[in-house]
Design brief:
By secondary structure, the chain is of the alpha/beta class. Helices cover about 15% and strands about 25% of the residues. It has a single domain, classed as 3 Solenoid (UDP N-Acetylglucosamine Acyltransferase, domain 1).
Length: about 100
């Protein structure tokens, strides 16, 4: 884990391994941050927010919502992330797409 300069990390925060927080970012109280998460500079993760593994937070981004789970790169609400994965899976199975050799 790497915490950059001028960062503020609240109380009761759980941060898993291989996570990097760039400078001047804020992590609110009670956040849960999965492994290999990257948080850009001047980003803010508000209290009670959860970040799934390998989530990427863009610089100057604010993630709101106590109890909200964010996933993906760039990080977005988990339900939205799952819908995108489902759409990609369906597109990959379409019969009219050319097959690889």
């Amino acid at each position: 884990m790497h915490i950059g300069h001028n960062d503020v990390v609240g109380a009761n925060v759980v941060i898993a391994a291989q996570t990097g927080v760039s400078g001047s970012s804020e992590i609110g109280d009670g956040c849960v941050i999965g492994g290999q998460v990257g948080i850009g500079d001047h980003a803010k993760v508000e209290a009670g927010t959860m970040l799934g593994g390998q989530a990427g937070i863009l610089p100057h981004k604010v993630l709101r919502g106590k109890g909200m789970l964010y996933w993906g790169t760039p990080a977005r609400p988990f339900r939205e992330f799952l819908k995108e994965l489902g759409t990609l899976s369906r597109l990959a199975r379409r019969k009219d797409t050319p097959e690889r050799s």
